[in-house]
């Protein structure tokens, strides 16, 4: 019976066995013990057969933290945890201790003040010279242009080991950093980080103060998708979920007058020319609509929330950030990827869409809220009990 279980675990784990060669043996042993404990001489054989049938129904794992990895008890425990997560309603009482201090906000690149001047005086840089974010060449910003003007890598540089040596390769094409100028063609694009520049494209403002006449959420998780335009890297979709994880806002953003889209970067944003054509509200109108949902007292939750606030031109002081709660071991400015944190802590896969679908800000807003719930539940556990994931 143990051999049968072992053979089926080996088959299931074939794609990840190189990551942990003894995993199939470990889990087969543990699974057999679980079955043994729950059965009698009469029912044992049948119980193992049922376990094998359940193993056959699992989808092949792609990583060690994939939901298909583990014994039946492991998986049930993860499911129970996910359910307790769903029924756990966050309150400001839970979140207040996690709100970033002024010092932490500065360390993590959050804005504290609105830049000087009214802002919004130069929404687009069409005709101006900028340096391309992708290929580093100078170019003249234009709403039209050949799709082949820029040769670049769309992936990030990642350190991997090849033949015992560390090499920096691009995640898009696995080519080493020094070897090629790019693997795809597209338009030249630019990105601005200076607050004064961002302010002159579209003005920053605080969220409205609380008022007795209009209610707002005390907690909301926010995520945005961004695209390249003649006015820089701009917000194109905004999603908000409430403290229960219910979606309360999900809108595409129409560009301001005179601002034209250069690249929808669909593989990252999930936004296409076709769906973006349906956007009716500009950022100013979106901000007005959001005034009904959030105010300066709302605790905003997000992952690398400073980016979302910046692109939304919001200055806000009550922020909980999962990039800070689950820091990269190298410290800021390094950040763990949201999808890795979700996979490791919640045993869930997000952003699994292929190049044509990209991210979904609604999914990511919920994921950051779930991570915060997990973080708080995990902290409440008695010391010594360990999480399974
Ligand atoms: Zn590449
Ligand atoms: Zn370029």
UniProtKB/TrEMBL annotation:
Gene3D superfamilies: Ribonuclease H-like superfamily/Ribonuclease H (3.30.420.10). Keywords: Exonuclease, Hydrolase, Nuclease, Nucleus. It is found in: Nucleus. GO terms for molecular function: exonuclease activity; nucleic acid binding. The keyword Iron-sulfur does not apply. GO terms for biological process: negative regulation of gene expression. Residues 218-381 form the Exonuclease domain. Coiled coil: none annotated. One of its GO terms (cellular component) is nucleus. The keyword Nuclease applies. It holds the Pfam family RNase_T. Belongs to the REXO1/REXO3 family. This is Exonuclease domain-containing protein. It comes from Agaricus bisporus var. burnettii (strain JB137-S8 / ATCC MYA-4627 / FGSC 10392) (White button mushroom).
